[in-house]
Design a protein that fits this description.
This protein has 228 residues and is mostly helical. It contains 9 helices and 2 strands. It has a two-stranded antiparallel ribbon. The longest helix is centred in the first third of the chain and has 27 residues. The radius of gyration is 18 Å and the shape is globular.
Length: 228
């Protein structure tokens, strides 16, 4: 029988999945404020499970697989549903469903690939699903998103198609994406991580919901600087 110590990280992983599931229910009930809180809680749990597993030295293949399955809900299904509900207000059901489905399928493919073929690189191969979820939610909260949907519907449709293809294609590709998980804190070896974090903090202070207009380009540019 496995000890409570060995199951501590798995319990936190289950909380990640639960918060993601509750967030989906909140969206169906059109309580997007609660859904956003659930996503934040899931992201915190996603960070803590790996941290706890390393501290307690209880990392396992079972825990890694469970983490990916939890991420399917919190950072695959959740952002895809969020994308669907956000797009369905301006696009037809067919377009909103198609774009959201592509996002979900690619997120699922990435998470399965990551479980079966884990990368040994210090950075990610492909866009991580938590980052995709963050970008999707932030983009839909910007004034630019609302204004384009209302004033320039043609360009809005082109923009969301392009964003969907960007996120979906990057997730399933092996194009590197910067990892914000620290193993040590030296500036020399973590310069790109610090660049993204500082940009995120400054962007939030200055731009609030428009943060993504700085964060997304910074994340893409920083990822392009990674040595392959």
């Amino acid at each position: 029988m496995l000890s409570l110590r060995a199951q501590a990280a798995n319990f936190i992983t289950l909380l990640n999945a639960l918060f993601g599931f509750l967030g989906c229910i909140a969206m169906i009930q059109e309580r997007f404020d609660l859904a956003l809180m659930a996503l934040i809680a899931a992201a915190i749990a996603d960070f803590l499970d790996g941290f706890v597993a390393r501290i307690l030295k209880v990392e396992s293949a079972f825990g890694t697989f469970m983490d990916s399955m939890a991420d399917v809900i919190s950072f695959g299904l959740f952002p895809s549903l969020w994308w669907y509900f956000s797009l369905s207000e301006s696009l037809s059901v067919v377009w909103a469903t198609g774009l959201a489905s592509l996002l979900f399928v690619c997120a699922l493919f990435r998470l399965v690939r990551f479980s079966v073929y884990p990368s040994k690189s210090i950075h990610f191969e492909g866009l991580p699903t938590p980052a995709m979820a963050l970008f999707v939610v932030l983009i839909t909260q910007t004034e630019l998103f609302d204004q384009m949907a209302y004033f320039t519907p043609v360009w809005f449709k082109r923009a969301v198609v392009l964003l969907t293809l960007l996120f979906s294609g990057w997730m399933v590709s092996k194009i590197p994406a910067i990892s914000l998980k620290f193993k040590e804190y030296a500036i020399k070896t973590n310069a790109l991580r610090y660049l993204v974090i500082v940009s995120a903090v400054v962007g939030f202070v200055l731009l609030k919901e428009e943060l993504v207009l700085v964060l997304l380009p910074t994340y893409i540019f920083s990822s392009l600087l990674i040595k392959r």
